[in-house]
Write a structure and sequence with these properties.
The chain is globular. By secondary structure, the protein is of the alpha/beta class. The strands form four sheets. It has a seven-stranded mixed β-sheet with strand order 8-7-6-9-10-11-12, covered by helices on one side. Strands 17-16-15-18-19-21-20 form a seven-stranded mixed β-sheet, with helices on both faces. The chain folds into three domains: 67 residues, Nucleic acid-binding proteins (OB fold (Dihydrolipoamide Acetyltransferase, E2P), Beta Barrel), CATH 2.40.50; 191 residues, Rossmann fold, CATH 3.40.50.150; 130 residues, OB fold (Dihydrolipoamide Acetyltransferase, E2P) (Beta Barrel). The longest helix has 20 residues.
Length: 447
């Protein structure tokens, strides 16, 4: 095919899936990616563009459906850039993610003798943090409220999101009407949802401070939604406004908001509006419980928690060990960790360290075990330090199977072996997957 083939319609047979859940078809030397298609299906697709020898296409029609195909329940599916696997049965989604992680491990030569059962929970209404874009159209004199479309910066209207909690305040068609009624209708650019265990906070971002009339309209509407929610036994609301890029958020309502928190290991962990939190509460609690079981820390052991965040793993570890060191790159997070530990009366040492800077762990006394939960880029900079110290147990939690496999390859070449591994479906209806691996140092082979 040549570039003139853009717009052409083809009948394709899907024989595989990419790591991000797109169907793959082949014809001669040509390879086609078809979002929304499942292996075994025959589909009709329209060619849209070519990049890096791949033809990217749009699914038009499923001619022969897979046994795993189900009707996508969300009316915004495929237009919204979020939940890209709703067309598959949930069981098959989990199997796909398990296969994907195993494939990444195999590419790096990482051996797993036995996989734990996947950690799963309710696949809908689970998401407790999300950002919706807001765009004012001067031509249409209206606001669009929703998520960005796939591979686009265009914001597509969403009426309600099926992976967010059920609450009157999360009906986005009502938000469009509310924003359109404001004098500053063109100034709001984002609505962030933070569904903690004690309240739902809605954080508006605006280009300039809002005037009293608009503030009063927003608060009046939130009060109405809260009353409806109370009648249904739902969580109370908080409304916040951030009108400067790096400024502090201002609480518009209530006058004295409770500190947000979520429960982990039976403890309430405080959440700042800007804190990273695992989006799936039920899966997170099961994940932390599994991490504690696998790592099995004892009272007198020294434990490191790298990339500690707000203490999702650190605080439960500190209930079991008197020598937990939590490392984070941001001073504000280190201060928050120390305050959280003091509030919970836990023996935890919070340390500021940029873990992307090789050698930043050199001054610390070696631990008996490490737990690390790095960002998507992984933890390449600390792998050699871990291997050099021959730390007996390493528990690695990852949101990216490829960087995880890369890092595990480094440890496996330095005498470590995977003794337990399993996936956690933190993000149902999407291709994203969380993985947990326990490694133990078994010594280098000299054979």
């Amino acid at each position: 095919m040549n570039q003139g083939s853009n717009g052409k319609t083809l009948t394709l047979t899907i024989d595989n899936m990419t790591s991000d859940g797109q169907g793959v078809a082949r014809s001669g030397r040509d390879v086609y990616f078809v979002p929304g298609a499942i292996p075994g299906e025959q589909v009709e697709a329209r060619i849209e563009k070519r990049s890096k020898k791949i033809w990217h296409s749009r699914l038009l029609k499923v001619i022969t459906p897979s046994e795993y195909r189900v009707p996508a329940p969300c009316p915004h599916y495929l237009r919204c850039g979020g939940c890209d696997m709703q067309h598959m049965t949930y069981e098959r989604q989990v199997e796909f993610k398990q296969d994907r992680v195993a494939r990444e491990f195999a590419r790096q030569g990482v051996a797993v003798s036995d996989w734990a059962l996947p950690i799963v929970a309710e696949p809908w209404g689970y998401r407790r943090k999300a950002r919706l874009g807001v765009r004012y159209s001067k031509e249409q004199n209206t606001n669009f409220v929703g998520f960005r479309e796939g591979a686009s910066h265009h914001i597509s209207n969403v009426d309600r999101c099926a992976v967010l909690p059920d609450h009157p305040a999360l009906e986005w068609q009502d938000w469009r009407q509310l924003l359109n009624s404001l004098d500053a209708r063109a100034l709001v650019t984002q609505i962030e949802v933070i569904a903690a265990d004690n309240a739902i906070a809605l954080v508006l971002r605006a280009l300039k401070p809002l005037q009293d009339g608009d503030r009063n309209k927003l608060v009046s509407q939130l009060k109405g939604w809260q009353k409806q929610g109370e009648e249904a036994g739902l969580l109370p609301l908080q409304l916040w406004l951030r009108s400067e890029k790096d400024g502090e958020a201002e609480c518009l309502w209530p006058a004295q908001p409770d500190t947000l928190h979520h429960f982990v290991d039976g403890m309430p962990l405080n959440l700042a509006l800007t804190d990273f939190v695992q989006v799936n509460g039920d899966v997170n609690r099961a994940m932390v419980a599994q991490a504690l079981e696998w790592l099995a820390p004892t009272e007198d052991e020294r434990i490191w928690d790298l990339f500690a965040g707000h203490g999702n793993f650190s605080m439960p570890l500190a209930r079991r060990s008197k020598h937990v060191v939590a490392l984070e790159v941001q001073n504000s997070m280190v201060t928050s960790l120390a305050a959280q530990a003091e509030q919970l009366a836990l023996p935890l040492q919070a340390v500021c360290a940029d873990l992307s800077d090789e050698g930043r762990l050199a001054h610390l006394e070696s631990p008996n075990a490490i737990l690390l939960d790095p960002p998507r880029a992984g933890a390449a900079e600390v792998m050699q330090d871990i291997a050099r110290r021959r730390i007996p147990r390493v528990l690695y939690v990852s949101c990216d199977a490829a960087t995880l496999a890369r890092d595990l390859n480094v440890l496996s070449q330095q005498g470590y072996a995977v003794t337990k591994a399993g996936i956690m479906d933190m993000f149902p209806q999407t291709h994203h997957v969380e993985t947990m691996v326990l490694l133990e140092y078994q010594g280098k082979s000299h054979g």
